[in-house]
Amino acid sequence: MTQLVELQDAIARFDDAGIKLYVISYDELGALTDFAEHHDITFDLLADEGSHVIREFGILNHHVTEEQVPYHGIPFPGTYLVDDDGVVIAKSFEASNAHRASADALLDDALGDVLLHSGEPTVDATDARGIRFSATLHGGGGVFRGAALRRLIIRAELPDGLHIYDAPVPDGMVATTFTLLGPAGIRHSPVEAPPTEPLLLPGVGELQVWSGTIDFVMPVWASDDIVSLVRADHPDEVTIELEIRYQSCDDQTCGLPRTERLTLDVPVRAAVGPDLAGNVMDGVERTGMDTGKWLGSLVRRSLDATPDREAAGEYLQRTAASLAAGPGGDN
What is the pTM of this model? Predict the structure, then answer.
């Protein structure tokens, strides 16, 4: 739900880029219509009841078994970029259903550029040689929300004639590395780096370097320790601590290895989530739609489709008991 709301918030930028959005879901048409009305969604929501298209595309989440009602039938979260002729020219999918790419990430990938915004949290530092490093939390207005991926954009701006190194490097030299020191509840994937350029050093060999302005991308997200769907006690903000280790050189000499530490304060907000009976999801900004009605319909549809109703019923009972127990419960 959070991703759909963020996509709507960015709809003007998609329009400006000439990109039309279509979202496919295994939910019923009525549920999507209700959600669109309550959240002023203007792009197309497509109902794939029975997950026929999802299966045809080969994106059914095979980790969710048939008795796991009502979750069986969901796809791996991801996107396709399709050109005017209907040809898929790019695609990106996440392994975890808890991760949803931000609207900004989708736009960046489609346009092939990182488009930072003035309102996103940013911090920077410049060393004695004029190298400027900055860190920006990109996506969703620079706000952490539950079940939403963000991108920590680490931008290096090097004066003409200077370069920094990718690994591997010879002993005595330092490759560029990025280490997320905190907070403990922020998770991340490996840094995505742009292509390097080869540099031949006499007596050393060919090394890989970056020069000019370089954007490194670290996918980040807030774990349940920071913002949970079932707890309402998330902090108002967290402080990201990033360590950058690097060495800059020109054609003749190298500077000493350096370590920069950047700290970035980032707001935290709840995810948009369902309004369920019993307030079992206290950590969400509740949608105004009748979630219980559509959830019940989805459960019935899923039970009719499963080959083992008894196992599905037991799974439903365990899920209900776990939600009732809440965080730290015995179930």
Answer: 0.88
